[in-house]
Amino acid sequence: MWLLHIDDDQENRVPATVQVSSNRRKKSPRSPQNSFEDLVTMGNTRNSSKKRAARDKQAQKMAKKARSKENPTQEAQGDSKPAAKDTTFTFAQVAQLVKSGGQLAQKKETQANIEDFVKQEYWRRVKFITNDAGAIKGCHAYLNHHQKLMGDDDAAERHAFCVLYKDHFVDCLNKQRGYAQNRVRDACSQWMQAHNGQMPPKDGLSALLSRTWNPPAPLADNATDDQKKKWEAEWDLAIWYWDSLLAKATGNSQHWNEGIRYYKTISTACKPLDPNYLFMHTTTEAIALTFVRNNYRKWAAMEALKRANAGKKIKIMNGAAPTDVGNDPVVQGTFVTVYEDNGNKLARETPQSSAMEEAILAQLHNVHGLFAESQEEERRMKRRKSSIIDSAFMEEISGMESSDDETEAADEDQQGGGSDDDESSCALAV
Hints:
Elements: E1 3-7, H1 36-42, H2 49-70, H3 74-77, H4 91-120, H5 132-145, H6 155-194, H7 202-209, H8 225-249, H9 258-261, E2 270-271, E3 274-278, H10 282-294, H11 296-308, E4 313-317, H12 331-339, H13 344-347, H14 351-368, H15 375-429
Antiparallel strand pairs: 1-4, 2-3
Helix pairs in contact: 1-2, 2-4, 4-6, 5-6, 6-8, 7-10, 8-10, 10-12
Region (Disordered): 1-84, 373-430
């Protein structure tokens, strides 16, 4: 079973004192002729300290290996004294050292590129790798995506690259799956905060994924309060599924952002010149629901503890994964069930799929006040509307100023006429 622990002693905890020691080496005076150690220490001034440290470590290993070949062991010589340290190196050893340092830097850069590729591209359509063949296939996909790293497209070199990086590729995919699950958990937490700590209904989510969800009809004028609440609950779930849950499950900010999900349906949102490149892949919808089903009770319990113990940190203890009745406790097994067995893969091919997606998209436009067919056109409409409002406001201001001038002129005329009447009345009185 899984356990949740509340840290009660956070306020009384005394912060630990941290001492930072400097491991920076003191610079030695430069000799007229640079030794091998000087070359290693200086290196390329633009390299980072980590790269220089890696080259130093590699040099020490090479020196130790060279000494072990040239000098016999102490046991064989019968001498208990340690052998003298040999600090002489050949030019070939220096060249090999520099080459190994460059290879280390290139490997780190390649690993970072693979992680970015998995996050931005590969996760869109692949959620699990179960064997070496799948890992090597992913590495080939990376090479095909980055043409500049393919070199002369030698098959042996490509295979060597895939063997070298296949484990890292699997680690990146597992890391991305964990990241996407945490984002889905955040979406569920936002839902629970707005719905009194209750998780979104699983039946409704399954209906949305399998395209059996029927959009509620417009409310009648004489609808009761219960009918209104039910109608709002149906649309709230559909909007949250489209606008929040799926956006979190993509694991990045480019495949289901506002510029896409507010103007395209799930089944039609794709690259302009590549209709097969769907931004919302069928596997992404399936993994989103898989995350919710496999963590349904755990996330609800965490939210309940947060509400009951405000301000205290919640720790998740190690233990067996919780299971719901009828659900597979293994994430991959649940994913296969949700994806293939009457799941999203087949549901998108039904006629009801497009009708349901169009209805949700129209409701999204009503909720967010959208009228255009694209984000760019929406922005142009807002700019035109803003300029029209500004023009009308300026005309109103100018009209008010002109009316004020006319009023002042009329007042002056009335004041001038009054003085003439006073003079005439005075004359008559005399």
